[in-house]
Amino acid sequence: MILCKTIPAVLILALLATSGVQAAPATFTYSNPIGFQYTTEHTIDQKELRDPCIIRDGDTYYCVFTMWPFANKEDGRMSLPDNGSSPGIRIYSSKDLKNWAPGEWLVKSSELPEDCPYKHRFWAPEIHKINGKFYLIFTADNWLKKEYNPSGEWGYHAFVGVADKVTGPYRHITYIKDSACDTTIMDGGDGKIYAIMPFGDLFEQEIDLSRLEEDKITLGERKKILSKTSDDPAQSTPSYLEGPWGMKIGKRYYVFYAENIEKEGYWTGVAYADNPLGPWRKDPRVKLFEGGHLAVFQGPNDRPWFSYRGESGGPAAGRLCADPFTIAEDGTVQPIAPTTGPQTITLPPLLKPVAPAKHFLTDKKRPDKKHGSHGKY
């Protein structure tokens, strides 16, 4: 009697490989804009967002973003829920980049005490995994009283907290002194972390978060690394640079940044360096990608992907989008056009191809029978 059992898919692929049969490559189909929406006390089934940051951890994708309303402090809005501010930062998760489920509130205005220095705004949240820990960084302030703010003024203050899991809870949320809106952090791959801050131009400095659980942050000397002024007089000059994202890919360092170019739209540029503190060299093409304030994550094909807000008009305008990009052999990022509608990519194989096994009865070099059936073939 023959017993039938379910054979795992990986084993089937291995059997096909050893038999010389090539399995069809696996594919993944996605479509921009991504079908993402959210509900808060302010709005129902809201689709517009800003500053989306997708991070992959294991087999799951997570997203944080600036929630509607995208407002500054306004006296006429102080009677609204959360004093007219975005309600906070909530994390969403997905297994396939298509279907998203709401998770925990990482920070929520209505649950914070009146004098909390990060009670309002919640702009440009990002999550970074560095040395096994997760860091949540965002821009916030307190709109109730000036003295509740670490600088003593209303404005843009960056805060960072730490967690053992991507979903939190994030503890020791601490002010980064003299920081800017859209401040980000970068893993230098050298045991150090670096903060990149936009003040029209881009600035960088070492940031020591090793004592964050003691509510202490140490900052190194700040230096200007990129100017908003175009290096090429023939190219457009942005009004400002913002929304930086720094990372190391291979042996090279990359800083992506958003640039607002009058009458030309909101674009992404990129600069390269061989060391975490530079010197940084702008890509001379200036306008790399139409869509700004992006984040980079590992996509389903194990290549780097952009997560971004659609900026090129059409059905993707203001919506969550994602696209893969390519780094050329010379280390430069290849420009891409934001996509809309269904896109299909090929996924990497689960197993490396295995050469077909030679059968003893047909192999001219089969071992002599007296040596048994375990010789080389």
Structure keywords:
single chain, 39% strand, 5-stranded antiparallel β-sheet, disordered C terminus, 377 residues, globular, mainly beta
Can you tell me about this structure?
With 377 residues, this protein is mainly β. 3% of the residues lie in helices and 39% in strands. The protein is built from 1 helix and 23 strands. Strand 10 and strand 11 (193-199) form a beta hairpin. The longest helix is centred in the N-terminal third of the chain and has 10 residues, at 9-18. The two termini are 33 Å apart.
Q: Helicity, in percent?
A: under 10%
Report the principal-axis shape. globular
Number of helices: 1
The average pLDDT is 88
What is Rg?
25 Å
Instruction: Classify the secondary structure makeup into a structural class.
Output: mainly beta
Distance between the termini: 33 Å
What is the element layout, followed by pairings?
Blueprint: H1 9-18, E1 27-32, E2 50-57, E3 60-66, E4 88-94, E5 101-108, E6 120-130, E7 133-141, E8 157-163, E9 171-175, E10 184-187, E11 193-199, E12 201-208, E13 218-219, E14 223-226, E15 241-249, E16 252-261, E17 265-273, E18 281-282, E19 289-290, E20 295-298, E21 304-309, E22 320-324, E23 341-346
